[in-house]
Amino acid sequence: MLEQQLVNELKAQGLTITFAESCTAGLASATLVNVSGASLVYKGGFVTYSNETKQSLLGVLEDILNTYGAISEHTTNAMAKGALRQINADIAVAISGNAGPLASEGKPVGCVCISVTDKNHTVSKTFLFEGTRSDIRKLAVENAFAMAIAFLKGENV
Length: 157
Hints:
Layout: H1 2-13, E1 17-21, H2 27-32, E2 42-47, H3 51-58, H4 62-68, H5 73-87, E3 91-97, E4 111-117, E5 122-128, H6 133-153
Parallel strand pairs: 1-2, 1-3
Antiparallel strand pairs: 3-4, 4-5
Helix pairs in contact: 1-6
């Protein structure tokens, strides 16, 4: 399972992680802590479902939200960097998207942006998942974990 792989990789490198979640609403955090030993690597996280909480808790600039929207790599980059600052973890993963059932901000159902960052660099990716609201949220978490693992290993994300 990807969550076990992520915990193992973080432990092997002696690193910690935090999450900033929007459409997954804490699912990434909840999935990671199902792994025994996650407390050694998980420092905490944020569920910032609204734009207001993205701004107040993570410091996402209103200009970014107004220009690019909540479902954008610009926003997830800012969310990840904000979570990293607030929690002081070694890496941060941010997820924002549209799990449906209706299009949002002109973005189709299934459009999800994910960013992974550390103090030195950030990688981002936009996905278009299919399925139910639950399917899209699960796929977002799985892909976020896969991106974090690749990031930690220095592989292309």
